[in-house]
Amino acid sequence: MLNIGLKEWKQFFTSQTGYIALCLFLLLMGLLLFVFPDTSILVMGYATLAGFFNLAPWLLIFMVPTITMRSFSEEYKSGTFELLKTSPIRPAVLVWGKYFGALLVVLCLLLPTLLYGVAVESLSAVGGIDMGATAGSYLGLFLLGSVFVAIGICVSSFTNNIVVAFIGAAFVCYLLFAGFEAVSKLSLFQGKIGYYIELLGLKFHYRSISRGVIRTDDLIYFIAVIASCLQITKQNIIKY
Q: How is residue 112 annotated by DSSP?
């Protein structure tokens, strides 16, 4: 599993695509946080990374599928998956190995953003950023990225077309992140029903953890979604 994960991680950065994706993510976040007036922390006048944690999920919806779209789609298309099937590697090990490899890439995207926190803290004249809420938000963002990776790998296992894998993963990520909240706001579902519908979405649990309070039900939700996606992936590659 470790070897497969490291192979996936190295493969992403052996081409220019990996470095371009990393640079674009950091560049866009930097522009949104410090340059564009509508979202700039400097314009707000107080030390907070709330803008970053509000914007980052939307970028990850599109960034993570670029990382996972080749996971199985390219194996199918190139014919190398047939070699993997004849090897002694168990399907579960293959799926989890690819998952952890892609997750490591997402971690490489998020780690440099810690510099934003350092920058905001150094610019703050009084108080500084809320460390508890910031730590909770980073955990929530990592868990969100973990779910997006699982979704991306799952969608990739359905098709040998890389473009379809990217579009499908981005759509499912968007649907799970924002779709349930949008449906819950319809007049038809006002009240308790709307609340329970919103509870099914990723955004609800991401916001809950971002407050700095780590609840068991939020963690169980993220783990359940990840495990479900990877189980579907495993079944797909067994049948392929």
A: G
Q: How far apart are CA 213 and CA 50, in angstroms?
A: 16
For the chain, the residue count is: 240
Q: Which two tokens mark 221?
A: 């939700």
Say how many CA atoms lie within 13 Å of 101 toward its Cβ: 27
Those residues with Cβ within 8 angstroms of residue 223's Cβ, 6 or more apart along the chain or in another chain: none
End-to-end alpha carbon distance in the chain:
21
**Angle, in degrees to the nearest 10, between helices 131-156 and 202-210:** 150
The CA distance from 43 to 9, in Å, is 38
Instruction: Walk along the chain (240 residues) and give the pLDDT tens digit of each residue.
Output: 666 666 666 676 776 777 777 888 888 887 877 777 776 766 666 667 777 888 889 989 998 998 888 888 887 887 777 777 777 778 888 889 889 988 988 988 888 888 877 777 776 666 567 777 788 888 999 999 999 999 999 999 998 899 999 999 999 999 999 988 888 888 777 777 878 888 889 999 998 888 777 889 899 999 999 999 999 999 988 877
Task: Count the Cβ atoms, other than its own, within 10 Å of residue 101.
Answer: 26
| pTM above threshold 0.85 | yes
Domain ranges of the chain: 2-239
Nearest alpha-carbon partner for 64 in 184, 224, 226: 226
Half-sphere exposure at residue 226, Cβ-oriented, CA atoms within 13 angstroms? 19
Euclidean distance between CA atoms 211 and 217, whole angstroms: 15
